[in-house]
Specification:
Elements lengths: L1 E2 L9 E6 L10 E2 L2 E8 L2 E5 L2 E5 L3 E5 L5 E4 L6 E7 L1 H7 L16 E3 L2 H15 L5 H21 L5 E3 L2 H13 L5 H8 L3 H12 L3 H16 L8 H8 L4 H12 L3 H5 L9
Parallel strand pairs: 1-3
Antiparallel strand pairs: 2-9, 4-7, 4-9, 5-6, 5-8, 6-11, 7-10
Helix pairs in contact: 1-3, 2-3, 4-5, 7-8, 7-9
Length: 273
Amino acid sequence: MRERLHLQPKADGQIWLYRPSEFERRSHRHEELEANLVVRGTARYLMASRRYDLKPGSLVWLFPDQEHLLIDESPDFTTWIAVWRRRLVRHAAPAECTLRQRAPAGDFCRGIARPEIGRAVQLLQEIEQQEHDLPRRNAGLAYLLMSLWSLFEAAGEGSAKPLHASVEAAIELVRREGEDISLSALAGRVGLSASRLSRLFKQQTGLTLVHFRQRIALERFLRMYDPRDGKTLLSSALAAGFGSYAQFHRVYKRVLRCSPRVHVGEPLPVSLD
């Protein structure tokens, strides 16, 4: 799902500190180049053909045409996120630099040493604080881009876990067909038995197939629900692929860590049974 990041019109990017309770978790991509520097806790990024296991010191790059989903955040997971508009990347990065690409092949998650983490965090904080001085912040964002890339290049080997071709195919089929494809049909189309696919999917992604399907249904709900069109939470949840409001409510609270009522401001049905 392509998302639009709401950046200031004249800003060349944005920096913020991410904590799990503050944002929705959905598979997405965006036109901006993104980097994450993990400072606390653990999590995973699930992408089309690989998985990144995140821990303190992980520096990960996410490119415009790479769909990514953050999962399994520990309660204390904290990461700095920086995004850069394409115009800044074209201006700051050399013509042959990987940063200019939209979906380069390879592993773009590496661990950096503790002293470099401290210096990078200090730089992120200094630039983030320049919210009222846009020219200075834009200049800082350009410097940050190439500084983080230099740290990444000096960090050595990456840490990506490649996904089995059948798991990659299953992810794409579930995204495209959702609940319309059964487990046995899914397994047959990717060339594995149902039990083998279930085990391999959980082993490689950290999610069961059931939980992955539920996340896809939740993404569909978040895209389609708009209280201005007169539809209720229940009707939108059913249209997104949930079998009942109770199931929708459980999944919503587990993934987004709040109830739908808190998030969208609509009263819950009288009964969740």
